[in-house]
Structures
1.
Amino acid sequence: MVADASVGASHSAQRPVIAMRNVVKQYRMGDTEVHALRGISFEIAQGDFVAIMGTSGSGKSTLMNIVGCLDVPTRGHYWLDGVDVRTLDDDDLARIRNRKIGFVFQSFNLLPRMSAIANVELPLTYAGVHPRQRRARAAVALQSVGLGQRMHHVPSEMSGGQQQRAAVARAIVTNPALILADEPTGNLDTESSIDVMSVFAALHSQGRTVVLITHEDDIAAYAQRIVKLRDGQIVDDHRRDASGARRTHVAHAEAGQGAFQ
Ligand code: ADP
Ligand code: MG
């Protein structure tokens, strides 16, 4: 078992996929300011599997929107795969989303009239990949989530768990630096949830970086690291060993020390 210090050292040795320093997000509601995030500083290393937890209103979606480049911080720094997102305009942000992030949503968001393979091909179409390559890569992604036999079915011909696995295939087909899932099992029964979580676990064991939001302990238990939010701040951050028996606290860099400075 490694001590806290060596865990930190081994993870700071490689460039983090996500690094935040003092990220603040405020929303204006008429005359009042809503402090959704109150100074978030943390890093996520390549290949990690992280669950972000917290009660409703704790800032999970706000944090995920910033991580996913759907929104930008009011203050503070965010580097995605080494790129400072403050330097990007809207077009750059759209491009970086397409290239670096695979999104999985609670509601699957598959296009209903399209077959699974056509849905999975879509991000490759946006990325300008040649049609023949698109089909081949989409087929590989679907096989890797166990849907090789369902490629030509439309979403209504698939179970919820199968639809979410197709959505995961769509998320990984561009080979993104990060898979970002917001309550991916929120609409699934227990059996389908286990099914989908095993796919995330397999992706993690292949070296993919996975970040998921959940408020369910048994879903978070699949992750190696659990970050807890309360009132827009990180109140707990720990990692489990393989057996789940031991937990080590994850230290955060002091405010102001940037990962890329
Ligand atoms: P969670 O996803 O954990 O439920 P959110 O990130 O959605 O939390 O919200 C955090 C806080 O920010 C809440 O107080 C919420 O009401 C507020 N908030 C979120 N989005 C907006 C918005 N677009 N405008 C104003 N307030 C918002
Ligand atoms: Mg939310």
2.
Amino acid sequence: MAKITFIGLGNMGGPMAANLLKAGHQVTVFDLSQAAVEALVADGARTAGSARDAAVGAECVITMLPAGQHVEAVYLGEDGLLAALPQGTLVIDSSTIAPETARDVAEAARARGLAFMDAPVSGGVGGARAGTLTFICGGEADTFERVRPILEGMGKNIFHAGPHGSGQVAKICNNMLLAILMTGTSEALALGVRNGLDPAVLSEIMKQSSGGNWALNVYNPWPGVMDGVPASRGYEGGFLVKLMAKDLGLAFDNAVRNQAAIPMGSLARNLFQLHAGQGNEDLDFSSIQRLYHPDAGA
Ligand code: NAD
């Protein structure tokens, strides 16, 4: 079992770190939120006063932070973690960030003799809690073999997408598709309800028909149709609108950089940005349903 330092204990990182404890690892945690740290300490984690102190003696450091600027702040610069870790330490970043940022951190890590892997995840808070996340890794093949047993403590499907940054590219493509299918599902449900259909009946029909998709199967956006999903608890928790808007911004920037056309992704980005700007940025992303039907579920 490994000595692991876990930094970033939010909606995803908290349950991921808890699963590493359950898998028998010695886990030291750090987050800017004291409440988040205390929840993990109650589960048996150690802690320290800073990210740098928490990483002393670690064989592996894992970060699960909101966005690229947080990842850069934690790892880079004179006060950053990379400058403090001994050679050979495994460094895994599971945040969703730009591939370019992941490559910059990977290069800085390589220069210090550290093994870096971008390993963003899919599967949501439910997958994080159940330990069934999909990890999408970018980095060298031998590093992939070293990180795999650790990631298996938190996930079910562990993919190696290619060299540094590839994990982030695959993750950005996936989330662009997720945003498109969640908005499409919300649009279809709103149209059906405007025609007097019951959203639960319509959901079941589409689930068993050619419109079936992940949102209908496990993350229905209409309040009350499915138990245990954010839509049925006022869109609290889950995957925040502001994080989806960030990911769609990453897809958009990437498309511009690569001269790729993403008309559906661009529309989804605008819809989520509009929704975020209307005061919904801290709700779960399935609340995009309200953009189509403001009193959905009322
Ligand atoms: P979150 O906002 O719930 O958690 C982020 C945590 O990082 C917070 O607890 C915050 O206090 C902490 N943090 C920020 N800066 C820090 C710093 N400098 N040092 C220590 N801690 C710091 O976000 P989340 O939903 O857990 O998502 C984390 C990442 O995973 C994001 O990049 C997101 O896009 C991605 N992601 C989220 C989901 C999901 O369903 N929520 C699914 C897949 C991927």
